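Input sequence (239 aa), recorded before submission:
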Amino acid sequence: MTGDVSQLWVYLSTTPLLWLAVTLIAYQLGSWLFRRLGCSPIFNPVLIAVLILVLLLKLSNTPYQTYFKGAQFIHFLLGPATVALAIPLYREVAMIRKTFRPIAITLLLGSLAAIVSAVGIAWLLGGERVLLLTLAPKSVTTPIAMGISEQIGGLPSLTAVAVVLTGITGTVIGDLVLNWMRVHDDTARGMAFGVASHGIGTAHAMQKSRTAGAFSALAMALNGLLTALLLPILISLLR
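Predicted structure, token format:
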């Protein structure tokens, strides 16, 4: 019986749809726990899903490459999902026009702060040059961050890990920090999540309000564009 189960697992583990289904189930379980436990940011659905998947991959000795063959369809959907964020932006276009100047200042300062903090902390801890370049675009959504990392000489695969960890961390502690700073305006909170925590933060902001979600989507998109323009220039100046 054990031999049959082992053979069945060997067959299923090589089937791409297995890991696609496991990823979706893990996220649904994370969403269920998130709602069940009072929607606490500590129990972020993405964080729970990542922990479940890491545990399963570790226990089954499944290489990441094998997992990605099944989950790559979800990765492909990152592009269309990002484009779809134009819908909440369109709904809030009037407010965006009124607050254009604060948005521009926030984006510039937020983008620079994200780059300088990541590189500065890694440098103080003794990180090598390639690690500094890898971490520099960590606050930008994954597809853009990987492209920037490759362009400036970083490691795109490690950048993707840093991006996910940044998004999860920002989402988990973002509400606590903003509440402590007494920032309750949905526009400001949305901008903060979008600049600091990209797509994961934007999904969290959309759960709070339509306005927060729209401004978070705007901040995420423009921060990606601004970082893609600024970072190569900063690197070339430092060189």
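Checked by second reader. Residues 89 and 218 are 7 Å apart (CA to CA).
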